Amino acid sequence: MSSAETLVATGNKAHSHGPGSPVPLQARSERPTSYDVADFPVPTGREEEWRFTPVKQLKALFEDAAGTESPKLDASGPDGVVIETVAADALKVLTPQDRSAAVAWNHAGEALAVRIPVEAELTEPVHVNVASLGGRGFGHLIVEAGRHSKAIVIVDHTGAGELSTNVEIKVGDGADLRVVAIQQGDHESIHLAQHDALVGRDARLHHVAVTLGGKVVRVGTNVRYAGPGGDAELVGVYFAESGQHHEHRLFVDHEATNCKSNVLYKGALAGDQARSVWIGDVLIRAAAEGTDTFELNRNLVLTDGARADSVPNLEIETGEIEGAGHASATGRFDDEQLFYLQARGIPEDAARRLVVAGFFNDIIGKIGVPEVTDRLHDVIEEKLARAAELSEAALRPSGEEAVTGK
């Protein structure tokens, strides 16, 4: 039975997102992938994979043409780490899943490769900087962890303009790799990214996505397993403010036996037209017996005018598994938590900040690099301060500004 047949068998039906005839339900694994840009029509926003995305703002990154300005990619790390420029097709863990990724693959030119030697255990992280310089550009990064190695790789995306990047991650057998991807571009910047990871036998991947900046950010993270015993932990934090669209799409493809995956993403939204989208797809193929998987998305809406969409999906083709589940929740502050803090003399605005900081702490703590976690806590604190100002302004009686001079 195919994935699509499995979905239909569990009660799913043909559907439509607008006028016209319903379209057949398409399983996540059956969507096309290709290195050829021509295989992907320019999105209109009616396609399943683009229906949440503001495609009109992305036209420049859909053009099959060279960029106007290449981003600056550089890296540094401890002794033994190999950092070099290679051909874009040197690894091919990633196959583009949409038009923007295919355009980036064909026009990024060369790739920056970071390679962790076999059996190396790095005591310091590798730092990769991807700076968009203001034009329309494309980037390509390769991270490869050798067999039985252990390392942390921090990837910082900053700058302005429009950027589309592909990131390929290969975790060798028995290796333990943590990749932290931070999106913190200028408020008007646009960043589209596809991250593909291949997890080896008895290997562990920790992928942390942090999105705290950018007008439109869309990150697709895909994981496959090269052998049994693989373990993937995918966690993320995002904070969208007024006019920002932060979108994260995940696909975990369980095709090997006795593998695990755990997905946990948390987001906060504040301001008019602040928007977040989270799509979590997990496929357990017929051969993937012994799979253990769970995915969870939680969203905290801090002000009126913000919207969060959360869509977890689970496709199961075998009953011989350890466990599988998903959940999502979107809501406002927990009144009981606020009451508890205020009853102990903490002002309401400070109590709200403490609740949100605690909401994010378990994920940011997984980064494991104090200087990075401290920086992210500072950025979140700044965002919370602005959210508090918005809430205060919304509660202020009409005309108060004119009377008080505020």
From TrEMBL:
- Where does the record place the region Disordered? 1-42
Q: Which InterPro entries match?
A: Fe-S_cluster_assembly_SufBD (IPR055346), SUF_FeS_clus_asmbl_SufBD_core (IPR000825), SUF_FeS_clus_asmbl_SufBD_sf (IPR037284), SUF_FeS_clus_asmbl_SufD (IPR011542)
SUPFAM superfamilies per the UniProt record, alphabetical: Stabilizer of iron transporter SufD
Boundaries of each SUF system FeS cluster assembly SufBD core domain copy? 138-359
**Domain of life the protein comes from:** Bacteria
Family statement drawn from the similarity comment of this UniProt entry: Belongs to the iron-sulfur cluster assembly SufBD family.
What is the designated name of this protein? Fe-S cluster assembly protein SufD
The gene from which this protein is expressed is: sufD
